[in-house]
Write a structure and sequence with these properties.
By secondary structure, the chain is mainly beta. It has three helices and eleven strands. The longest helix has 10 residues.
Length: 194
């Protein structure tokens, strides 16, 4: 499915040859996923993860724990997608919208999402979904205070993190065209919240 869609999202490549995607899921979506008992439910995801134990050990460290664990905090891996739970993702109920409330045209229908459920937003990310740039790499400083009886340590860096956005390359770059996200999809699903 990931390769058949347009625009195609390129997977993130790890040094050990793995190509993976990241799905950042709301905690309600993770709860519903774990409660799913169907043929592609959480039990199937766990079975697939245990079957791929040798591969998972390379991703999560030698024994799946410790400092060399790459995906600390991940809920699981399914179909080359690392599932990550995050509690600060926006949710909306009927009559609301994820867009600007003053100009929104895609209002969530109250007949579809009632008072006990809501639309939860998740993110499906590939390579180049975000960038990290350094103006100054991390530096460590040490200084003694109070006649060399109290050591102090400080670190600093100049860096920035941002979501990647781009203009249509066919449009005039001087025009004020709407930008599009690169390497990320938004996935809206319904979940019980009450």
């Amino acid at each position: 499915m990931k390769k058949a869609v347009n625009p195609r999202i390129r997977p993130a490549s790890l040094k050990n040859g793995f190509e993976l995607y990241i799905a950042v899921l709301d905690t309600y979506a993770v709860r519903d996923l774990k409660e799913d008992t169907g043929t592609n439910g959480w039990a199937q995801i766990e079975a697939a993860a245990n079957k791929r134990g040798v591969e998972a050990n390379r991703l999560f460290g030698k024994d799946g724990t410790g400092r060399d664990r790459i995906f600390d905090g991940a809920v699981g891996i399914w179909n080359d997608v690392v599932l990550w739970s995050y509690e600060r993702i926006e949710i909306r109920t009927g009559g609301q919208s994820f867009d600007d409330p003053n100009t929104a045209t895609n209002i969530i229908d109250s007949n579809i999402v009632d008072g006990t459920s809501a639309v939860v937003r998740s993110l499906f990310c590939g390579a180049q979904a975000a960038v990290l740039g350094f103006g100054q790499m991390w530096k460590r400083y040490q200084k003694n205070f109070d006649y060399h009886r109290k050591p102090g340590t400080a670190t600093d860096a100049l860096y920035g993190v941002s979501k990647v956005r781009f203009n249509d390359p066919g449009a005039a770059q001087s025009a004020n065209n709407a930008q599009e996200d690169l390497g990320v999809w938004v996935i809206d699903t319904a979940a019980q919240v009450a």
